[in-house]
């Protein structure tokens, strides 16, 4: 199965996504912020990144732009529950910047697994 880096500042989201993805046989690494995730990824790239968009310090859009510069082939699934900017706008921007799929919070385990399967492509 795939190695997946999950980035979200909400511990409960990290916990749920890890449980769902590990339950499907994937290896998961968690990061609570994008700066930490970039440092981790630079030393140990993964097969897929699943990132929240609305986070403090560095948001998911900036993370996606930096990841695309250094690792353009890495698939990314962007997720958002919105905030000051409607989630549809945030997820649309993430798609324009290269996210291969998006998830609107709240989401189901089935939606997560489907997005991951689409992002990873055929086995």
Notes on the structure:
With 123 residues, this protein is of the alpha/beta class. It has one domain: Response regulator (Rossmann fold, 3-Layer(aba) Sandwich). 46% of the residues lie in helices and 20% in strands. It has a five-stranded parallel β-sheet with strand order 2-1-3-4-5, with helices on both faces. α1 links the parallel β1 and β2. α2 packs parallel to α3. It is globular and about 35 Å long. The termini are close together. The mean pLDDT is 93.
CATH homologous superfamily (4th level) name: Response regulator
Mean pLDDT across the residues is: 93
Biggest sheet character: 5 strands, parallel
Percent of residues in beta strands? 15-25%
The number of distinct helices, counting runs of at least 4 residues, comes to: 5
What does the radius of gyration come to? Answer: 13 Å
CATH class: Alpha Beta
The poorly predicted ranges are: none
Helices and strands: which structural class?
A: alpha/beta
* Number of E strands: 5
Name the shape in a single word: globular
- Widest sheet: strand ordering: 2-1-3-4-5
Q: Write the CATH fold name.
A: Rossmann fold
Q: State the domain count.
A: 1
Order of helices and strands: EHEHEHEHEH
Tell me the helix content: 40-55%
N- and C-termini, Cα separation: 9 Å
**What would CATH call the architecture?**
3-Layer(aba) Sandwich
């Amino acid at each position: 199965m795939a190695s997946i880096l999950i980035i979200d500042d909400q511990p409960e989201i990290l916990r749920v996504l890890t449980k769902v993805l590990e339950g499907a046989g994937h290896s998961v690494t968690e990061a609570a912020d994008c700066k930490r995730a970039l440092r981790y990824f630079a030393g140990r790239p993964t097969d897929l990144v699943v990132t929240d968009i609305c986070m403090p310090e560095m948001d998911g859009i900036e993370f996606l732009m930096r990841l695309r510069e250094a690792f353009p082939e890495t698939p990314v699934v962007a997720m958002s529950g919105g905030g000051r900017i409607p989630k549809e706008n945030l997820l649309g921007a993430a798609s324009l910047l290269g996210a291969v799929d998006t998830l609107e919070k709240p989401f189901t385990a089935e939606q997560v697994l489907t997005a991951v399967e689409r992002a990873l492509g055929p086995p």
